[in-house]
Amino acid sequence: MKLLNIYIRYRLILGIVFLAIAIAVHYFTGFWPSFIIYLVAVVSIFGHFFFGPLRLIQEHMETGDIEGAEKIINSIKFPGLLFKPIRSVYYTLKGNMAMMKQDFDSAEVMMKKGIDLGSGSSLMQGTEGASLLQMGMLAMQKNNFKQAESYIRQALRKGLPDKENEAAAQLQMCSIMINKREFRAAKDHFRRAKALKPSSSQIVDQIKQMEKYISRLPG
Fold first, then answer.
1. Residue 161 CB contacts under 8 Å (≥ 6 apart), including other chains
2. What Å distances lie between residue 94 and 69, 70, 75, CA to CA?
3. Which position has the higher pLDDT, 123 or 167?
4. CB contact at 8 A, 140 and 179
5. Could you give the CA distance from residue 146 to residue 154 in angstroms, rounded to a whole number?
6. What is the pLDDT of residue 124?
7. Residue 31 confidence (pLDDT)
8. Which side of the chain, N or C, has fewer Cβ within a 10 Å radius?
9. Are 41 and 22 in contact (CB under 8 A)?
10. What is the pTM assigned to this prediction?
11. For residue range 50-74, what is the model confidence (pLDDT) as tens digits?
12. Positive/negative CA dihedral, 146, 148, 152, 154
């Protein structure tokens, strides 16, 4: 696995080196002795531009090295060349990183691109719902509750990757329903969030805070 990551990291340089070697071998001996070297060079250069280095982000995310992950994302100079499913993941990751910096306008633009490209992509299954949920949260930051409701309902329909995300979506819907003064619906979404029994401290704390308020609502 480490060897693969090293190859991906230096794939373009290796491709150029192999291409130079192939040309030299071709010149001195002929095409067929250089064929395999040409093939390795072409596959390496092709892979750099059409697959990108996104695989390398995983090791940075696992160690919490957001700066390292961002450097890899920023190293992609021609995202338009990436295959469509990979390009979708690229824009989604760009959106997530913009959200971490609280650059909500850029996050919205990037995540919309990711969602649009990811529609129907098997690579995006399980992440499209999470992206829609984040779009809903962005809309709530802007007090656009109508748009937020639309995104979060879509997220719940598409499916979310785990109970933590689903509980977060139900809590957001609870807040939206309270804002609309649809208190019965708000309580229903709160019950659904609580029934999921999320374990993350942030979601658990939100449920505790909401529970103090929800019991005082009519309906």
1. 126, 127, 129, 130
2. 10, 8, 12
3. 167
4. no
5. 13
6. 52
7. 95
8. N
9. yes
10. 0.78
11. 999 988 988 887 787 889 999 999 9
12. positive
pLDDT in tens, 85-95: 899 889 988 99
Nearest CA to 194 among 180, 179, 205, 183?
A: 205
Rounded average pLDDT over 154-168: 92
Q: Which two tokens stand for residue 27?
A: 């010149």
Extents of the domains making up the chain: 1-50
* pLDDT (mean) for 164-175: 95
pLDDT tens-digit readout, 113-125: 988 886 545 445 5
Tokens of 163: 């109970």
Could you write out the three-class secondary structure of the chain? CHHHHHHHHCHHHHHHHHHHHHHHHHHHHCHHHHHHHHHHHHHHHHHHHHCCCHHHHHHHHHCCCHHHHHHHHHCCCCHHHCCHHHHHHHHHHHHHHHHHCCCHHHHHHHHHHHHHHHCCCHHHCCCHHHHHHHHHHHHHHCCCHHHHHHHHHHHHHHCCCCHHHHHHHHHHHHHHHHHCCCHHHHHHHHHHHHHCCCCCHHHHHHHHHHHHHHCCCCC
Count other Cβ atoms within 10 Å, centred on residue 190. 24
